[in-house]
Design a protein that fits this description.
It is built from three helices and six strands; from the N terminus they run αββαβββαβ. The chain is an alpha+beta fold and 162 residues long. Among the domains are: 41 residues, Wheat Germ Agglutinin (Isolectin 2), domain 1 (2-Layer Sandwich); 39 residues, Wheat Germ Agglutinin (Isolectin 2), domain 1 (2-Layer Sandwich), CATH 3.30.60.30. Strands 2-1-3 form a three-stranded antiparallel beta sheet. A hairpin with a 2-residue loop joins strand 4 and strand 5. This is Kazal-type serine protease inhibitor-like protein. Pfam families: Kazal_2. InterPro entries: Kazal_dom (IPR002350), Kazal_dom_sf (IPR036058), Serpin (IPR053265). Keywords: Signal.
Amino acid sequence: MTAIRMKRSVAFKRLALLALVPLLCACTMDVDPGPSRPSPRPWPPQQQMCTMEYAPVCGERGGRLQTFGNACQARNSGFMIVGRGECRRAPPVALPEPDRPGRPPRPDRPNRPDRPERPGGICTREYAPVCGQRGRQTQTFPNSCEAGNAGFRIISGGECRL
């Protein structure tokens, strides 16, 4: 009778072992492989939403200049801003500042009371074009505040006509 019990005991142990193998295989742990695995790539940056304000800037990329409606649009296109206003073929000429030493005196123009004073204030970026005049020069500005800051007198609403 002992031989039969022994055979049953061995058969029971084998059956128990076969039942535990799938359970033990399911118990796994994910181990970080360390620096051998490359890190995941970051998501590409999304373009920023830009307003449609009109404040032209000149952008440069790879030696190429291009005019944009505003700085946000230039940056979204991958351009570096190199100046305010539209791009020009020739580099802008630096104008002498009014109080700069070394500037030749102009006795024919001592103080000009007819010239509007430049307030230098901060303007909103609303687009309400005006035509401004300073001397014989006329120029279109995005709004009256910008014209005033540039020292121009407003002569009409809308863009200047040639």
